[in-house]
Design a protein that fits this description.
single chain, 305 residues, alpha/beta, 11 helices, 13 strands, binds adenosine monophosphate
Length: 305
């Protein structure tokens, strides 16, 4: 079953202590769609300007990402620029140019409105709600957000949450949203705001998953070489939503969500191995399978005879 993905499509300029690359494909929807496409066909919704390379449409086609919901409009594509500190954990946003994003109103093609799995990648919560308004009967809605929306458009975010099945956010955002220092308390408090499930990402320290009766904690895949952490969270969300859609014969339950979190972590671990989406462009199903198995072995603490 396919996944509808909406979010930002950007041209990013990213600087790390060793490298800098300008105007590369980025944006929450780009990473999320690529991540999800390893598991399920994707219906992509977003906006780009006249300067957006045609070759990226070819890339989407090659990855069974249907870009019928990507509007190309007069003006420039959304641009974001960030710089990482030496530890590759702290990041400073250098500039943001909304450009064609400023007047963006996501409009779903008729054929997208029946999608059962939806990933609202990071964009303004009012736009995320606007997408849901156009859908007929989604079965499972995953949403991502960021500190900016918690700070500036909190009422919009609160209106969205009861319509979301799984909210994904990182540890600092969970604390910011609840004023709780304990992530356990924060995760539970966010569940009370609406979403049945909440996933809290802890960067290189893994993730936590909260459900009505269950709790799950997993590590992150230990990587030696990180080149560009940009989009790790978006790729994680894409992997989660894509995996859930791929097992859509089953009801989404906690066991499925646990596996989805591992697949999300595996996908994110590949995304950061190269700049922009370059690692995802040449990633294979076999590599994903191998890393998933490795994850399983590493997480086992009772060694079987
Ligand atoms: P992450 O590393 O998961 O925070 O995601 C980084 C991506 O988010 C970059 O590719 C940016 O283009 C995109 N991005 C940055 N700021 C925003 C924003 N305000 N709204 C939507 N996408 C954004």
């Amino acid at each position: 079953m396919s996944v509808l993905v909406v979010g930002s499509i950007a041209l990013d300029t990213v600087k790390t202590p060793v490298e800098e690359h300008a105007d590369q494909l980025g944006g929450s929807a780009s990473y999320a769609a690529a991540g999800a496409s390893f598991f399920a066909p994707v219906q992509l919704v977003g906006v780009v300007g006249e300067d957006f390379p045609e070759s990226e449409f070819e890339f989407w086609k090659s990855r069974r990402i249907d870009a019928a919901g990507v509007q190309r409009v007069p003006g420039k594509t959304f641009r974001w620029s960030g710089e990482y500190a030496w530890d590759l954990n702290t990041r400073e946003t250098r500039s943001v140019a909304l450009n064609v994003f400023e007047n963006f109103e996501p409009e779903l093609p008729e054929t997208f409105r029946d999608a059962k799995f939806v990933l609202l990648a990071n964009i303004a919560p009012a736009l995320q709600s606007h997408v849901l308004d156009q859908m007929r009967q989604p079965r499972f809605v995953v949403a991502d957000t960021m500190d900016l929306w918690i700070e500036t458009t909190r009422p919009d975010l609160e209106a969205l949450l009861p319509r979301v099945d799984l909210l994904i956010l990182n540890d600092s955002e969970a604390r910011q949203m609840t004023n709780e220092t304990s992530l356990i308390r924060a995760g539970r408090a966010i569940r009370r705001m609406g979403p049945n499930y909440v996933a809290v990402k802890k960067g290189e320290h893994g993730a936590l998953l909260f459900g009505p009766d269950d709790f799950f904690s997993c590590g992150a895949y230990p990587l030696e070489d990180i080149h560009d952490p940009t989009g790790a969270g978006d790729t994680f969300a894409g992997g989660v939503a894509g995996y859930l859609a791929s097992v859509s014969g089953n009801e989404v339950d906690f066991a499925g969500l646990r596996k989805a979190l591992i697949y999300g972590s595996v996908l994110a671990s590949f995304a950061v191995e190269a700049f922009s989406l370059n690692r995802l462009r040449r990633l294979t199903d076999e590599e994903i399978g191998d890393r998933y198995e490795m994850f399983k072995l590493m997480s086992q603490f009772e060694v079987l005879a």
